[in-house]
Design goal:
This protein has 317 residues and is α/β, with parallel strands linked by helices. It is built from 14 helices and twelve strands. It folds into two domains: 227 residues, TIM Barrel; 76 residues, no CATH class. It is 43% helix and 18% strand. It has an eight-stranded parallel beta barrel, surrounded by five helices. A three-stranded antiparallel beta sheet has the order 4-5-6, with no helix packed on it. The radius of gyration is 20 Å and the shape is globular. About 3% of the residues have low confidence.
Length: 317
């Protein structure tokens, strides 16, 4: 995979499932991250080709729980992000998915207690030797630590042979309300020869060019801006958020997305522009399945057409 001059959908927990990744790609994202999956979890899965919806599923053994779903349409674009604290386990997990994804990313950025207590995410920033062991031939994403340490760590990661480095412009203790430090990303860019993907405070299409100019990074990663309206990746006129939501619901129906995940993403979209106490939000909260969500957005006919198509496939199988 090439990492120069790319628009990248950031990894987002419970959001970066197949329908949302394909939605972002339709609007112009060149690279789309899946949500972070812990190495322990993926190595408990078996790879299953799902002829019913034409996907490739990694399903937890002994259950019907789909841990990761992808498809041929995104094979050259999707990045599998892994949470890990062990090089051997990380390699085993990567080998399981590598034929179905464009790249594997190691998360060094998550500051939440679940990741840090398990020695994953931001906890890796204090373990450069482990980073080196895990790092060979992977693609890394990490936040800033103190600037000299960040630059030194970035140089060390580069020497492992990674293809690219995504840098989030906040330190571990920072929160989303704190401004991203684009100037510090620029220091990392100037210290490396591999592509750096800049991430932080990209909320509209014009911000993409601004962060590139400010940091010198050739590529840009977008998180909340894409969640609120995935058409941020489009150089054309931004799509209305109502249309984006409806298209997301359609993709969720088409790819049989988990209803809890779909509801979570819709609620996140709504809360940026509106309120969950309004009728739309209340209807989403009450929805029990994808059919209910189709009704919320007046798309019962689409839901039924997909359902009828699958029934016909079953009959001819």
């Amino acid at each position: 995979m090439e990492y120069e001059n790319k628009l990248v959908l950031a990894p987002m927990v419970r959001v970066g499932t197949l329908p949302f990744r394909l939605l972002a790609a339709d609007y112009g994202a060149d690279i789309t991250y899946a949500e972070e999956i812990i190495d322990h979890k993926i190595i408990k899965c078996e790879r299953i080709v799902n002829d019913y919806i034409k996907s490739t599923d990694f399903v937890e053994k002994g259950t019907d729980n789909v841990v990761f779903r992808t498809c041929n349409e995104e094979k050259g674009r999707v990045v599998f992000q892994m949470g890990t604290s062990d090089a051997v386990r990380a390699l085993k997990a990567a080998q399981l998915v590598c034929k179905d994804v464009a790249a594997v990313d190691i998360n060094m950025g998550c500051p939440k207690s679940f990741s840090v207590s398990g020695g994953m995410g931001a906890a890796l920033l204090t373990k450069p030797d482990l980073i080196h062991d895990v790092g060979a031939s992977y693609y890394w994403k990490h936040p800033l630590v103190s600037l000299p340490d960040t630059v030194e760590l970035a140089r060390r990661i580069e020497k492992t042979g990674v293809s690219a480095l995504a840098v989030h412009g906040r330190q571990v203790a920072d929160r989303p309300r704190d401004p991203a430090k684009w100037n510090e990303i620029a220091d990392v860019v100037s210290a490396l020869t591999i592509p750096v993907i800049a991430n932080g405070d990209v909320f509209e299409y014009d911000d993409i060019q601004r962060i590139k100019v400010a940091t010198g990074a050739s590529s840009v990663m977008v998180a909340r801006g894409a969640l609120w309206n995935a058409s941020i990746f489009s150089p054309n006129v931004e799509a209305h958020w109502e249309d984006v939501k409806k298209e997301y619901v359609r993709k969720s129906i088409l790819w049989d997305n988990d209803v809890k995940s779909t509801k979570h993403t819709l609620k996140e979209m709504i809360m940026h522009y509106s309120c969950l106490e309004f009728p739309e939000g209340k209807a989403i909260i009450k929805s029990q399945n994808l059919a209910d969500l189709a009704k919320v957005y007046g798309d019962e006919e689409y839901y039924e057409s997909v359902r009828a198509y699958r029934i016909a496939l079953d009959r001819h199988a």
